[in-house]
Amino acid sequence: MTGATAPPPDGFVPVLRLGGILLVTLQGDLYDSTAERLRQDIGRTVSDDAVTGVVIDLSGVEIVDSFMGRVLSDIAAMTRLLAAQTVVAGMRPAVAITLVELGLTLPGLRTALSTEEAMNLLGAEVAHLPRTAGARRERP
Fold it and tell me: What is the pLDDT of residues 51-60, one digit of tens each?
């Protein structure tokens, strides 16, 4: 056994709650049905669980289409109406160029270069741990 974990099932989008902030990590291509389910799930979670911010990490996304651009815009508008903020983090230059070429400038959507910066924009404290904090020590 190599210790590797199995990849998540198709259509699975990891969502992690960090205090009052949801961290949504998008990887690769996203099916339209998955994007729609994600939009609904985020809205329900923000409403039911008093979430104050949503970070959508796009660093694992290489290509977007007009539907995904609209989903991002809709999530930002929906969370704003529910008194939460959305920040998109880690957008690649090619993704930004594609959105502009599609005419989707996503007004009102805040962006950050990294997830850490996005968390800071939402007022979350991000702890900086030394690199050796999780390292195993060799036994003599």
Answer: 999 999 999 9
Q: Give the pLDDT of residue 5.
A: 46
Q: Please give the full DSSP string across 1-31, using - where no structure is assigned.
A: ---PPPPPPTT---EEEETTEEEEEEES---
**Quick one: DSSP state of residue 58?**
E
| 116 vs 111: CA distance, rounded Å | 12
Its pTM stands at 0.80
Please choose, from the candidates 67, 27, 55, 30, the residue with its C-alpha nearest in 3D space to the C-alpha of residue 113. Answer: 55
CA distance 49 to 53: 11
Average pLDDT, the chain: 83
> For residues 76 and 46, what is the distance between their CA atoms, to the nearest angstrom?
12
Task: Fold for 15-120, please state it.
Answer: Transcription Regulator spoIIAA (3.30.750)
Between 63 and 12, name the one with better pLDDT.
Answer: 63
